[in-house]
Write a structure and sequence with these properties.
mainly beta, 8 strands
Length: about 100
């Protein structure tokens, strides 16, 4: 991977569960973990039916420099869109992470 291709600025957000709301449900928030540069490869998308309604799902692969604090509970914010991380692959010996994501 050529580090010069890391030309897209993204925001990594970690899922945290805080206190409960008035109904006793846990409050889930996504505070910013880091703002990093990534390489973006759009993998197209598809539509599927969820809960009796059509949902568009876009797939994308982001490659970032290696970090130990990224997991599948982390999400990516890019271009006012949210991408859920579905899989993480390590490239090289702790050089880069390939984040396979879905945009909803």
């Amino acid at each position: 991977m050529n580090p010069g291709k890391l030309d897209t600025k993204i925001t990594l957000e970690n899922r945290t569960v805080g206190s409960t709301n008035a109904f006793g449900e846990p409050v889930v928030t996504f505070p910013t973990l880091a703002i990093v540069y990534a390489s973006l490869e759009d993998k197209g998308g598809k539509e599927k039916e969820e809960a009796e309604k059509d949902t568009a799902i876009g797939k994308a692969v982001f490659i970032i420099r290696f970090r130990t604090d990224v997991s599948t509970t982390t999400r990516i914010s890019y271009n006012s869109e949210i991408y859920d991380i579905r899989a993480i692959n390590e490239h090289g010996r702790k050089r880069f992470l390939e984040l396979i994501t879905e945009k909803r």
